[in-house]
Specification:
Distance between the termini: 42 Å
Bound molecules: zinc ion
Shape: globular
CATH architecture of the largest domain: 3-Layer(aba) Sandwich
CATH topology of the largest domain: Rossmann fold
Number of helices: 10
């Protein structure tokens, strides 16, 4: 771990000599600032959700959470390039991939009329301990880039995650609402009243997190919730 941390002190140019920039999917050498080669990018498994009236992501949330629309540009298959991108981003600390991922989500959302009208982008929160260990919250990094691209303000101060809710509640100086079924919390929910919000995460799997967060928000305020991720896992049939 210490050896890895010390890499931060090596000049980037020198680091690049020892660890040449390669495509995170196929390893092909690339110019600095590029993480995925054109060939791998072209072959990413696209979802095509923008052409469907009700896509599999939305169908998974039916009867669970009130969501206006949910979508993602790609499908995550086992050992696929999409999986390699997510893995490199989350576990190999290649945070510059947030730009690639954020761009892909942005261009996907631009194909819809209503997504771009959202008032705020809210990243799915990560437990502070986990975030400290990883160094970043991947959903927040994606949301930050998406916010820059779309000029929709990111709010990372409304949804929270903690395993120590009791202590947090005592300390809270503001109104904070907790989910009864999870360790998620929403603070100052009135700020979302009447707004349209875009919940952002890296991958949509079972939809459990989105389900909990959307219900928690709706318990305390009235707003429209949209969901966007980079990819959805598993079978796309629903
Ligand atoms: Zn490649």
């Amino acid at each position: 771990m210490k050896a890895l941390q010390s890499l931060n002190y090596i000049p980037k140019v020198l680091l690049h000599t020892f660890f040449p920039n390669g495509c995170v999917c196929c390893g092909k050498r690339l110019n600095e600032g590029i993480s995925v080669c054109l060939s791998c990018e072209y072959n990413l498994s696209i979802s095509g959700f923008q052409k469907q009236e009700y896509n599999p992501m939305e169908k998974k949330l039916w009867g669970r959470a009130q969501i206006e629309k949910a979508t993602c540009p790609y499908i995550l298959h086992k050992d696929s390039s999409v999986q390699k991108i997510i893995h490199a981003f989350k576990y190999q600390h290649q945070t510059d991939l947030a730009k690639f991922i954020g761009d892909k989500i942005y261009f996907h959302l631009k194909q819809y009329a209503d997504f771009t009208d959202c008032d705020y982008i809210l990243p799915v929160p990560m437990h502070p301990k986990k975030q400290k260990a990883r160094g970043f919250n991947q959903a927040e990094e994606i949301a930050r880039h998406l916010s820059k691209r779309s000029e929709i303000k990111m709010r990372n101060d409304i949804l929270l995650k903690s395993s120590n809710i009791k202590t947090q509640t005592k300390k809270a100086r503001w109104q904070r609402w907790l989910s009864t079924s999870s360790s998620y919390a929403v603070q100052n929910p009135q700020e979302l009243s009447g707004k349209s919000i875009l919940l952002v995460d890296d991958v949509f799997t079972t939809g459990a997190t989105i389900d909990v967060l959307a219900n928690l928000i709706h318990e305390h305020t009235n707003c429209k919730i949209y969901v966007a991720t980079f990819a959805m896992t598993g079978s796309i049939r629903a």
